[in-house]
């Protein structure tokens, strides 16, 4: 079945959920990882025993306290007991199994077998919800898959981050080993679920509003500024957004990390990310991503990007624990996709970061021209450099002029 067939299935409900689709192999998780099992008593004879039914536990088996708590938490999070197989969920949403699997894979779910009772009524309702948007013409098939993948990838990273933070807190507050803290989290988490869920929805709505303002309402003003600052630069012209793109890269991070134990390295990474996130958000920018010892950020104007870049450089220079950072920023056009950014502007900013001295901020000559009339900044040209992919460029060191820069708590 080709992509057009799958799209047609999403647009048009089917009466039976893809009965022809062959039994699939579990790809990313075993059934034991997906469904909690009972723990047999020490004296139970399990030889030749068949798997217990969903309706009754075997007389010789009991659930441990830990698994009982985990089972209760799972039921709460999933909205009920697992009672449905994948074909039943797909059929209930009016989809073939192949089409349903495309959406589940976009969400990052493992591919279970036909006999695995792994889904709830909430799974079916969620699947039907996204499909109904396509059938109503609110989303195209491609947009539905892309939006679904965004949700899956972002929430996956979010829950890993939250779980690790909670485990670390238990280790610190209760003085228990990491392995013990991970088990205790199961009983600690139920009291936090509602508050975390409310905060997620609140943050999503605020971030969605801010994203609409950045990427739609104020986009045209940025493009006009980009045309003025980069007139005649045809390489950037096809890209839709104008942004200040910056990188901050910790100096000597690799050698430092080799000398640190797990706890110290975790503290350093957390301190680095927290400080970057605070400065970038205060400056009105957006932290695109962190990769080890490097952070990528954007801002809507050259001045905002310059303020953030100078604040980052100063913060790391003055920090008693973190090493200094090399920072670079370039104003130009970018493509925003999949939560990341692309284009020559991003590549040039990365190249300039490698040229910067520890504690210094570099911009290119065109970004410097956009900042030249702003007395908050001092611009000092440096010798020309031959940069791979760009030829000869003229770096300019950015320094503080008038004013005090970003005000941080």
TrEMBL record:
Residues 244-353 form the Guanylate cyclase domain. Coiled coil: none annotated. GO terms for molecular function: adenylate cyclase activity. One of its GO terms (biological process) is cyclic nucleotide biosynthetic process. Residues 46-62 have a biased composition (Low complexity). CDD domains: CHD. Gene3D superfamilies: Nucleotide cyclase. This is Adenylate/guanylate cyclase domain-containing protein.
